[in-house]
Amino acid sequence: MSRGTTVAAAAGAMFLVGTLAAVSDLIKDYPLYGGQTVRYAVAALIMFVIMKATSRPGAHLTVKDFGLLVALALTGLVLFNVCVVESTRGAGPALVGTMLATVPLVMAVVTTRRPRPRLVVAAGIVVAGALLATGLGGGGVDALLWALGAVACEVCFSLLALPLLPKLGAVGVTAWSVALAVPLLAVAGVIADGPAVLRVPTAPEALGFAYLASVVTCGAFFLWYTALPRLGPGRAGLFAGVIPVGAITTGTLIGLGLPSDAELAGATIVVCGIVVGLLPDRPVRVRVLHVLADRPDQHEDQRAHEQDDAHDSHGDHSSTKHDSSRPRV
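The structure assignment produced for this chain is given below.
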């Protein structure tokens, strides 16, 4: 995969995730956890069919692999949805959207011991643009803590997948993670909603679930997990800033209104930050001065010359003294 294709995959993945906000309006009246259970169950079915149809052989999952997949499903999918919902209940969508805009900066800082200054600057530009496009949110301490939890889960969504991608590939990681999220969400739904966790969806709700399962889950997850190992978590995290761009664009297309000047300016700043972060690193050229070491025989020759000079000087002095002692005729 070329670098341009990788960049397009990462941007496309986060753009599709951004469409989630507008499409979620179609399923807002459906029980939350039951709806997410249906979404991930359909997505798992699609991904396992794709995995079966591809020529990639099935990988043997070790205990460590299975543990990483469970952790990925629990944090990146289940707890992420819980944190977003609880934060939205306390402060509306603006707060959690604002906090999720800081994901690029968090990824740039936590993924390396000494993050490159240019990458941190690029992440800061992306954060500033996303904050401008999303709008600063309000709310209490509880809503803020839930939003911070959503940020942590979003980071886990990428970092926990990195060790699994070489063995399972993008399709395998997506299939297993969404499949493991289904029973976890079902249990949460039964606890929260009881028997009302599932019902027959209306036609618009069915369309919304179909889009979320096929496009936002299967499509976005596959694109993201394809680009992530090639870009690295630091640079890949910059593309989280595309989420507000996807939300603004989708809202415009489905008739929710034209974007404001602040949203357009924020989207432009996000793109600029991503471009800065993707610039190639220039190697530092250091001019090295090579100093040739003296050969051992050079010191010996120099010492021999000094002794010869001293001997000649001593001989001349002795000759002079001898000549001075001669009787003059």
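Interim note for the steering committee: The chain has a mean pLDDT of 79. The chain has 14 helices and no strands.
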